[in-house]
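Progress note, sequence design subtask.
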């Protein structure tokens, strides 16, 4: 390892010297975290001093004095007496430091048209929008739901909320009206920002009708709906409630003073699936979240402001879009691509065409996307010039070694390091990942906790396992971007994350440490599925199925799937007396399609089961718990495992007999 005093050749800055420890007065100082081995040493020497230095590169309206207050564990406070504004850090300070002309967003639309926004233009847009929101009655602390396509306005909406200290709750545009309503109701959002529609696979799909439906059936807290015109055409309009973005924007001033908020002020709520039917509103703070999002983005992607063109393919509806499209990259003054559409519209080379068009240098995507591209064939990316790439990232699930090798060879030209980044909605930022240029990578392993992060693999009794052993992944020390809780439910926060291994955060993932001590993630150990890198709860889909009048009982499992990692497979018992309705729907096949559509309506298309099997019994223990393990065996076409604990061991025979010929 180089000596601790090594200077970063690109900046000449020694990260350990005192010059990096001062509060930059609105500067463009983002050299805080160049990826070098000394970061590990610095963090190991004094973890809190390490995080202090990472936080000090942000611009604080009021500097903090205390780094961590863990006295009310598991409720953490980081940098608590400091005040700052996230949008100021992401945008204004770059403009003030003379970088207003640098491109922030390169927006690529599905139809091939494009637009770009410099940091100065983004500042104007979010200032106007902050004024609009204020005029609409949104103030600091009010929650705002955002239900948008992946267009620059989604980024502006988030930053405008941050500018006035109104926590945003982004709901993925693929979620249904019901899912949207329950999220709006839980957060009691005062306003919704949406678009008339979005382009998907060459078609204009409506978006606002879902908002109208959600508000017609509940969500009384919402007073205003701000609507971006994206697809054009007619939309239903509620006078007094609905406001066109472009009309309000026209008269809004570009002058707006960002509101400094305490570091612990919630920057956003993001709903994610848990092990029960009700999604959890994960709450993230302003100061700690921003510190770690920016630091990790900088070191993991080796980001060089102004020189790089970075592209993360995530939608802002997910945490990856929050941390690695909006906050991390923009605090680091990144020039980045955002793409509205799907990877195969109008052709299967769309992503690679975009990399060539913009000269993308860092590309961050998911194993499911890589496996899909593999399936389409390497001659497709082979048609494009991908030589601008210098780093590849992966997130969402373990990347299998075959996909890793393909990614490295076909996309990365055997020259780009791959960072396999493990983290969660709850962790807010990357926790376990190799660092480019430092860690010798291993296909399929996320490997090592980042400097400043403490992770362990624990056995059943909470002891750390040795090298070569498996167990449960836990985070053993608090970290700045950790969730601050579940919105409105402190007990669920304690129970879900802190009760399995008291004093330590239980991530819900199984993991193994190899002979070198590197960490390999083995997937969820709870009732959460991972479909194309998206988290879905088995119970949430079961509840959706059971809410259909034909369904008596349902059990859902995640079965391995070559492309999507896991696929949703449901076992459904129909109520007696539904025979005629099923007949009218076109028999079993028709009924199954009706149920799939029902789940799509209740939750969203991503939750639709890939397969539904109609059965007459479900395997249960004597205490009535469904044995999903056995159903998974069936769904994966394996020999069924141990059935001894079943209340009635003949049930599995029944299920299998009933399924013959239906696969
Ligand atoms: O099971 C892990 C898996 O995704 C879960 C978190 O999902 P979500 O909160 O939706 O966030 C996804 C994007 C950060 C984790 O509990 N996961 C995420 N990244 C990886 C992963 N599993 C293995 N390797 C990864 N790199």
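Output:
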């Amino acid at each position: 390892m180089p000596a601790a005093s090594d200077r970063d050749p690109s900046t000449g800055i020694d990260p350990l010297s005192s010059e990096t420890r001062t509060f930059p007065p609105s500067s463009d100082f983002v050299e805080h975290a160049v990826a070098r081995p000394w970061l590990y040493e610095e963090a190991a020497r004094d973890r809190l001093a390490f995080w202090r230095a990472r936080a000090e590169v942000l611009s604080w309206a009021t500097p903090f004095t205390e780094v961590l207050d863990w006295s009310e564990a598991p409720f953490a406070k980081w940098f608590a007496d400091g005040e700052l504004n996230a949008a100021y850090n992401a945008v204004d300070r770059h403009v003030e430091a003379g970088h207003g002309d640098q491109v922030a967003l390169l927006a690529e639309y599905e139809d091939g048209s494009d637009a770009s926004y410099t940091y100065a233009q983004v500042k104007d847009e979010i200032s106007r929008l902050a004024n609009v929101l204020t005029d609409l009655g949104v103030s600091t602390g009010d929650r705002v739901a955002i239900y948008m396509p992946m267009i620059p306005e989604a980024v502006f909406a988030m930053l405008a909320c941050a500018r006035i200290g109104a926590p945003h709750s982004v709901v993925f545009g693929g979620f249904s009206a019901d899912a949207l309503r329950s999220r709006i109701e839980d957060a009691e959002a005062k306003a919704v920002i949406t678009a008339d529609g979005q382009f998907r696979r060459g078609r204009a799909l409506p978006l606002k009708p879902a908002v109208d439906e959600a508000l017609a059936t509940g969500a009384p807290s919402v007073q205003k709906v701000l609507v971006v015109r994206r697809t054009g055409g007619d939309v239903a309009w509620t006078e007094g409630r609905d406001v066109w973005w472009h009309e309000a924007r026209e008269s809004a001033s570009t002058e707006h003073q960002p509101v400094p908020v305490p570091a612990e002020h919630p920057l956003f709520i993001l709903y994610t699936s848990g092990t029960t039917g009700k999604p959890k509103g994960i709450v993230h703070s302003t100061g700690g979240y921003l510190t770690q999002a920016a630091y990790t983005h900088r070191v993991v992607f080796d980001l060089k402001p102004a020189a790089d063109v970075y592209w993360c393919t995530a939608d802002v509806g997910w945490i990856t879009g929050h941390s690695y499209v909006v906050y991390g990259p923009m605090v680091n003054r990144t020039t980045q691509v955002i793409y509205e559409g799907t990877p195969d519209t109008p052709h299967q080379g769309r992503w690679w065409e975009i990399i060539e068009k913009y000269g993308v240098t860092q590309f961050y995507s998911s194993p499911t996307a890589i496996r899909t591209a593999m399936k389409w064939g390497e001659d497709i990316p082979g048609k494009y010039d991908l030589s601008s790439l210098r780093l590849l990232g992966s997130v969402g699930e373990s990347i299998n070694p075959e996909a890793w090798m393909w990614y490295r060879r076909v996309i990365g030209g055997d020259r780009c390091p791959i960072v396999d980044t493990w983290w969660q909605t709850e962790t807010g930022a990357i926790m376990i990942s190799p660092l480019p240029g430092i860690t010798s990578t291993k296909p399929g392993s996320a490997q090592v906790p980042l400097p400043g992060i403490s992770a362990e693999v624990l056995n059943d009794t909470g002891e750390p396992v040795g090298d070569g052993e498996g167990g449960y992944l836990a985070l053993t020390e608090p970290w700045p971007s950790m969730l601050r809780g579940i919105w409105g439910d402190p007990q669920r926060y304690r129970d879900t994350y802190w009760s399995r291994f008291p004093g330590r955060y239980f991530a819900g993932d199984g993991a193994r440490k190899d002979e070198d001590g590197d960490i390999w993630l083995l997937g969820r150990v709870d009732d959460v599925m991972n479909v194309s890198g998206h988290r879905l709860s088995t119970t949430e889909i079961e509840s959706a199925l059971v809410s259909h009048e034909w369904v008596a009982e349902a059990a859902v499992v995640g079965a391995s799937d070559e492309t999507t990692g896991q696929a949703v497979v449901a076992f459904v018992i129909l109520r007696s007396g539904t025979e005629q309705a099923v007949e009218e729907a076109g028999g079993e096949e028709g009924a199954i399609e009706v149920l799939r559509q029902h789940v799509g309506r209740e939750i969203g298309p991503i939750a639709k089961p890939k397969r539904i099997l109609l059965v007459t019994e479900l395997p249960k223990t004597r205490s009535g718990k469904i044995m999903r393990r056995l159903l998974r065996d069936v769904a994966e076409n394996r020999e069924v495992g141990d059935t001894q604990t079943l209340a009635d061991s003949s049930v599995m025979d029944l299920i299998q007999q009933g399924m013959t010929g239906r696969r």
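Confidence is low (pLDDT under 50) at residues 1-35. Work on this subtask will continue into the next period as scheduled.
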